[in-house]
Design brief:
By secondary structure, the chain is an alpha/beta fold. The protein has twelve helices and 13 strands. It has a single domain, classed as UDP-N-acetylmuramoyl-L-alanine:D-glutamate ligase (3-Layer(aba) Sandwich), CATH 3.40.1190. The protein has a nine-stranded mixed β-sheet with strand order 5-4-1-8-9-10-11-12-13, with helices on both faces. A four-stranded mixed β-sheet has the order 3-2-6-7.
Length: 349
């Protein structure tokens, strides 16, 4: 765990803990030789890349755990297979300081796993298991954490991320809303319509998505529309389902937009030498929640999120374990971007 002086001041906490769900697993990255699209029956050479891959819930909660310290309770809800990958992840999370009471191991089932492949030009894709232990995080399993959610109440944050069933995430958000917690969520492009139709958005105080996911919500083709039009259209669409919803939308090098219920704010991406952008959106979401937990206004939290996301891409791994308060402060001062006094003070104290 990081030394205390590399974390944020616990006396600034607006919330006291977070309970989340989403995928917990691992993956492998494979660099293909040749840019032509892999054929159905083709055999192609390549090599494994040295990348430590993590899944969405783990990435989001990692930075919160690292930056907010033991005064802030971090309780993940998920399931791992009782296999080598699951056992390694369980021990790593336990060692890092996660509260592991709702991380179950399932005998005879594999841990969530992705095989990511890349062409020399940087494009690629991934194959993800659809029968992993994460799919067994059902609404009944979420219910087991009801007492912890109730205990956090209005001092807690709820976080629902992809890679577990949508019904399970809805149950978590329902429980959080019932007990007055601040409820946050993200969704993939492929599940956006199902999420909207499920009625889940009425339980969401903050949604964090990328511009493609926002375009799907708005029913817009992203390749034919500018990012800002997508942002404004998607916010109007989201508001039609929940008038109180707040939103964060990222668009890579174009930066991010945040809607606080009254105003739309754009903040630039922090320029850096990117090694890998995998996990950057999850890091941004994590930064938003860190900022809100520390009592920042959403627009200041957006600035902190931009720093965390920008620094995350300097690592080849989907979690950059070098990120702490000091590295973020150094990154801020080298960015050439004007940050608010609230964020500067938070990083310097």
């Amino acid at each position: 765990m990081k030394p205390e002086h590399l974390k944020f001041d616990p006396h600034k906490l607006r919330y006291t803990g977070i309970i989340g769900t989403g995928g917990i697993g691992s993956g492998k990255f494979f660099a293909l030789n040749g840019n032509h699209t892999l054929g159905r029956e083709e055999s192609r050479s390549g090599h494994f890349m040295y990348v430590r891959d993590y899944c969405k819930q783990h990435i989001i909660l990692h930075y919160i755990l690292t930056l907010l310290g033991p005064s802030f309770s971090v309780i993940p809800i998920g399931r791992l297979g009782d296999d080598d990958i699951g056992n390694i992840l369980f021990e790593e999370m336990k060692r890092d300081g996660f509260n592991m009471k709702w991380i179950g191991k399932v005998p005879g089932v594999s841990t969530l796993f992705s095989f990511c492949f890349f062409y020399p030009d940087g494009s690629g894709g991934n194959l993800t298991t659809d029968d992993s232990a994460s799919t067994l995080v059902d609404a009944g399993y979420i219910e087991k954490a009801a007492a912890d959610i109730e205990q956090l109440g209005s001092e807690g944050i709820i976080m629902a991320a992809p890679e577990v069933p949508l019904d399970s995430r809805k149950k978590l958000l329902e429980l959080g809303k019932r007990h007055g917690s601040f409820c946050s969520a993200s969704f993939t492009t492929g599940e956006m319509h199902q999420a909207i139709e499920s009625g889940i958005l009425k339980y969401v105080d903050l949604i964090s998505v990328n511009v493609d996911e926002a375009a799907e919500a708005a029913g817009i083709q992203p390749e034919k529309t500018g990012a800002e039009i997508i942002v404004r259209s998607s916010i109007e669409k989201l508001k039609s389902y929940n008038t109180d919803i707040r939103a964060a939308i990222t668009s890579g090098k174009e930066g991010s937009w945040c809607w606080d219920g009254n105003r739309l704010n754009k903040f630039p991406a922090v320029k850096t030498m990117a090694v890998s952008t995998a996990g950057a959106g999850d890091a941004f979401f994590s930064g938003l929640l860190c900022g809100l937990a520390l009592g920042l206004h959403l627009f200041d939290a957006q600035q902190l999120a931009s720093l965390i996301a920008g620094l995350s891409v300097t690592s080849p791994h989907t979690i950059n374990k070098e990120i702490d308060r000091r590295s973020l402060n150094t990154f801020l001062h080298s960015s050439g971007i004007t940050f608010s006094e609230s964020v500067i003070k938070l990083l310097e104290e």
